[in-house]
Design goal:
The chain is mostly beta strands. The chain has three helices and 13 strands, in the order H-E-E-E-H-E-E-E-E-E-E-E-E-E-E-H.
Amino acid sequence: MKHGSFKIVSLIIMACITVFSVSGQNYGPDKTVSFETKVLEPFNGDSEYTWKADASKFITKLENVTYPLLTYVEAWPIAAFGYNRDGSQTIKSLGINARFDRKGYNWIDIYPVKTDDPETPFEIRIPGRVRNMDMWVWGSNLRYYIEIYVRDYQGVVHFFRLGDISYIGWKNLSVNVPNHIPQAKRILPAYAGLTFVKFRIWTQPVEKVDNFYIYFKQFKILTDIFENLFDGNDLADPQLVDQLWANSK
């Protein structure tokens, strides 16, 4: 009898956990989704913004060089783009070269800036309600890891780990966006998308930092672009509302 009761209780607990998990992800039979894959940044050197790098205090500063260095190189993951033997297209990746004066939890921030104002950070708008992010990263088996920083509609910055880069060569790193990061509101307009702020590369205290290279290629997302239509949904568009009220004066 006791064994049977324990089994029933265990089944109830498992069912509750399953329901909680599903509801936390906002899935359900009445939830309509329309997933699309979009490239946020190809790292080909032809975007409307440029990329800049800052680093923590122990970054090496030589007489004529201040690290970290950024440049575009003609290199790419063959698994994603093939060999390009005929040279029919120019494929580039973003290269990062850095060194620190001492080991520790050093960091490097990689973030976009306006082309005509390189001192002003530029946050990339993320369309839809993003579920997953991935990027090709070249590593040389160093014990480092990469974080992604995003900003929600309330101005709060969230970060999560894209992955470790303690491997050799190109690898596609992928991460699901945490459910606790808000991407919708209860009131209209319900859509409340995120913006991309930066990548952060962390070094581990046990790892060498005297000179290293990392390469980025094709930062993309899997996002749900579905929006419910209703009678009067155009009045939930802030730009249209501003236009309507401006014309009424």
